[in-house]
Specification:
By secondary structure, this protein is an all-alpha fold. It contains 5 helices and no strands. This is Putative zinc-finger domain-containing protein.
């Protein structure tokens, strides 16, 4: 119990750098309830992190619209195969 409370306290007191990581992760995966609460409460008062989240959402939408047939963001006809392969390898390593 104490361990979970410490973890929650740490998350609720993250600096912007930690919150930006949670914001980024929230776009790709489901966060725990405490992580969601931490980043959402931070966004209430932090203009910079709200702006960062908006920028990520705009970028994600733009990349999605530019996606090619193979499903990689931005992998339209002008993207070299070598770059596509490198992106695939890095995504696979995650």
């Amino acid at each position: 119990m104490v361990r979970r409370l410490r973890h929650a306290w740490r998350l609720l007191n993250l600096p912007c750098e930690g919150i930006s990581e949670l914001v980024s992760r929230s776009l790709d995966e489901r966060l725990s309830p405490v992580e969601r609460a931490a980043y959402r409460s931070h966004l209430v008062y932090c203009v910079a992190c709200r702006r960062y989240r908006r920028q990520l959402l705009v970028l994600r939408e733009a990349l999605g619209r530019a996606g090619g047939r193979d499903g990689l963001p931005g992998s339209g006809p002008g993207m070299p195969e070598e770059l596509k392969d490198r992106i695939r390898r890095q995504l696979k390593d995650r």
